[in-house]
Amino acid sequence: MTENNNRNGEVWVFAEQEEGVLADVPRELLGKGRELADRLGVKLAAVLMGDGVESLASGLFEAGADVVHLADDPALKTFRGVAYRKAFVKMVRECRPQIAIFGATHMGRDLAPAVASELRCGLTADCTDLQIGDWTDQKRKDASGNGTVVKDVLLQIRPAFGGNIIATIVNPYNWPQMATVREGVMKKLDPRPGAKGEIVRHDAGLGGEDLPVEVVEIVRRHSSVNLKGARIIVAGGAGVGSQENFKLLHELADALGGAVGGSRAAVDLGYCEHERQIGQTGVTVRPALFISCGISGAVQHLAGMQDSAKIVAINTDRDAPIFKVAHYGIVGDLNIVVPKLIKAVKKGW
Ligand SMILES: Cc1cc2nc3c(=O)[nH]c(=O)nc-3n(C[C@H](O)[C@H](O)[C@H](O)COP(=O)(O)OP(=O)(O)OC[C@H]3O[C@@H](n4cnc5c(N)ncnc54)[C@H](O)[C@@H]3O)c2cc1C
């Protein structure tokens, strides 16, 4: 443990916002951050950067933060890597948090490695869980030959080697301990309406040389697919057989008022668009009802859907791994089962 490691340091969550609208992911990370901070007995803080964004602090307190570190500066109006990195690193050096968590979004994936690199502190990307625990350093033996126990470190848990193992990664010596977490993985707390906290205002400390890029225009492509917000998802895999057959899944989803998702194989085969991909390298979902059609249930797929409240799986192979996580399983051909389901739903079950 180096003396830089601040045992009383806060747990920080990067409060990503765009155009004054808070993203969903900081609320999710504050849910997990609350658990970590309570376990460590320290404060949970959100780091809010932007221009004229102070009004977002109340939403962060409601989502679980005790403190909001605010860097409000016209230079932080739109996300620019160099400026955000400098402002974030300056705040870390002033406040010495022990943990900093970012959403694994486009912004988080740009900012977090840049911050970690400047602070020389390491970063674990795409964690699926975070816990506090002890870790034994076998390379540092004490007089009796036992490894040195480092107490209360951040256990950064994520799939590794193509999802075949779950790795626990620790950074016991060069803090802050930093991780990114994919959207939809952590659970938000129930909002605490009217919750209050402390706002700590920071000077972003930016000069002209910190803004080498001028943002001329932001062009957005809005997605029509909202899997994260869907209460019901009908998902198809390679077993659906064709893009044409995928229409059956759309028909069932429409009848149920749900959305259509797919496995990576379905995306790779061109049956559905990439934005519909569910799993480790796609979206993580947790709907009330997940109907899986012709999906084998590889670990990388399960990582994105196994926390759904109810899972119904349709597969011709009774030994398909998807049945291990399904609450209801139908061994059968989806070309027969899905039309029957559509008929039943349209009739009102
Ligand atoms: C690093 C990495 C990341 C990955 N990320 C993801 C990810 O994010 N999401 C993801 O999904 N995958 C991901 N994968 C791929 C994953 O390992 C699997 O290859 C993929 O999920 C398989 O998709 P599938 O189940 O649709 O296809 P298959 O494994 O080919 O399964 C098709 C299933 O359909 C069934 N079937 C066939 N015909 C019918 C029928 N008529 N009726 C009913 N059932 C039928 C078969 O029995 C079979 O179980 C990743 C892999 C790696 C290495």
Describe the secondary structure blueprint for this structure.
Layout: E1 11-14, E2 17-18, E3 21-22, H1 25-40, E4 44-50, H2 57-62, E5 67-72, H3 81-95, E6 99-103, H4 106-119, E7 124-127, E8 129-141, E9 147-160, E10 165-169, E11 177-181, E12 198-202, E13 232-236, H5 243-256, E14 259-262, H6 264-268, E15 289-293, H7 299-302, E16 310-315, H8 322-325, E17 328-331, H9 334-346
Parallel strand pairs: 1-4, 1-6, 4-5, 5-12, 6-11, 7-11, 13-14, 13-15, 15-16, 16-17
Antiparallel strand pairs: 2-3, 8-9, 9-10
Helix pairs in contact: 3-4, 5-9
Flavin-adenine dinucleotide is lined by residues 162-163, 237-239, 263-266, 277-282, 294-296, 298, 300-301, 304, 314-317, 320, 333-335.
Features:
28% strand; alpha/beta; Rossmann fold; 349 residues; 5-stranded parallel beta sheet; 2 domains; binds flavin-adenine dinucleotide; 17 strands; 26% helix
What does this structure look like?
The chain is α/β, with parallel strands linked by helices. It has helices at 25-40, 57-62, 81-95, 106-119, 243-256, 264-268, 299-302, 322-325, 334-346; strands spanning 11-14, 17-18, 21-22, 44-50, 67-72, 99-103, 124-127, 129-141, 147-160, 165-169, 177-181, 198-202, 232-236, 259-262, 289-293, 310-315, 328-331. It folds into two domains: 11-210, HUPs (Rossmann fold, 3-Layer(aba) Sandwich); 232-346, Rossmann fold (3-Layer(aba) Sandwich). It has nine helices and 17 strands. Strand 2 and strand 3 form a beta hairpin. The longest helix is centred in the first third of the chain and has 16 residues, at 25-40. It is globular and about 65 Å long. The N and C termini lie far apart (62 Å). It binds flavin-adenine dinucleotide.
